[in-house]
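**Discrete fold encoding**
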Amino acid sequence: MQESEIISREKEWMDAWIAKDVSVFRDILSDDFLLSSARGNLMEKTEWINNASGPFTCKSFIWKEIKVRTYGNTAVVNAFVEQVASVGEKDWSGFFMLTDVWVQQNGKWQVVSRHGTGPLADQ
């Protein structure tokens, strides 16, 4: 059951990005969340929320493949995704590989880390 719950949380997170739903961001992202972006930046929770609710815009996020491996209260997600997104006027659309680390804490699964690679060559 953990796998389906984590996949559901992944989708909830990216749906919230499309909707710019800050309350969902705060619930899903652990206080010590850290993104290592495909563009070579490190971004903590507050900065990610500010960007995702501001200049980072996502129009669609499609899960092409997703694999979840759980280890007690920790889960690692490897995913291949396609997004239509932008930062201001810059297009950030394309295919990406993501690695997310989730921890069961505070009575729920929260993401503590995301690493993105891409955009990849057209698939």
